Amino acid sequence: MHNYLKPLQQLFEQNADEAIAVGAKKYMRNRYEFYGIKSPLRKEIIRQFYKENGLPDYDKVEEIVKDCWQQPQREFQYFAMEMLKNIAKKAGKERIELYEFTIVNKSWWDTVDFIAANLVGTHFKLFPEMTIPSASKWIDSDNMWLQRTAILFQLKYKKDTDTKLLTGFIDKMQGSKEFFINKAIGWALREYSKTNAEWVINFTENTQLSNLSKREALKWLNRKNS
After folding, report:
1. 21, 120, 155, 187: which could form a disulfide with 36 (CB 3.0–4.6 Å)?
2. What is the pTM of this model?
3. What DSSP string describes 94-157?
4. What residues contact residue 160 under an 8 Å CB cut-off, 6+ apart?
5. Residue 226 and residue 183: Cα distance in Å, rounded?
6. What is the pLDDT of residues 137-196, one digit of tens each?
7. pLDDT for 104-138, tens place per residue?
């Protein structure tokens, strides 16, 4: 383990709760181990850690993140992606490779969705010329989590959403039987419906979507109008 992370490991161990860990592991379908530290306490621990240790030097970030990804406890992966968010606007173009690493390793919705919206989305805002080459490569891959990221990275874009790109990616995923893909399509459309309801209504009426995608896409509008 990188020396930078050893004080954090100590703090995690001091605050571990076995009962919470068992429940968290079960919630994640037994994919990962946990210290059993709920989000509010984890954030307080990390604030204390940063107060004493600061953020890492730029040239140490990749090694530290990959070390976090090697740890069995999921709290380390949460720490790494939240740290990356803190420094996302200072990242260079090459950071996309590290983001891709975090997407395809120890992949599950709890990390991938955060990475898509908070890391990849920010990165493509910083370097818009990277958007189409990178996201198109992902949507054409056979990795469901990269495909989900390509669909979700615009979640926070609101009026800046590239609807042509989103439409193209949804079209490429038409007919998918993957729950996480169809859910992502609906989620992306639902978020955009808060900005442009007319566009989303028209899109869902004129596009062949799975029942799950359509239901998710219109959920916010239906609740708003009920």
Report:
1. 21
2. 0.95
3. THHHHHHHHHHSS--HHHHHHIIIIIIHHHHHH-GGGHHHHHHHHHTSS-HHHHHHHHHTTTT-
4. 154
5. 22
6. 999 999 999 999 999 999 999 999 999 999 999 999 999 999 999 999 999 999 999 999
7. 999 999 999 999 999 999 999 999 999 999 999 99
Distances (CA, A) of 14 to 8, 18, 72, 141: 10, 12, 17, 42
Which phi and psi (to 5°) does residue 56 adopt?
Answer: -75, 160
pLDDT at residue 224, as a whole number = 84
* Closest alpha carbon to 145 in 188, 208, 103, 175: 103
Residue whose pair of structure tokens reads 């955009």 in the numeric block: 192
Task: Take residue 101 and report the two structure tokens written for it.
Answer: 């690493």
- Rg of the chain taking only CA atoms, in angstroms: 19
Q: Give the chain's end-to-end CA distance (angstroms, integer).
A: 53
- CA angle 132/93/99 to nearest 5° reads 80
Instruction: Please tell me whether residue 207 adopts helix, strand or coil conformation.
Output: coil
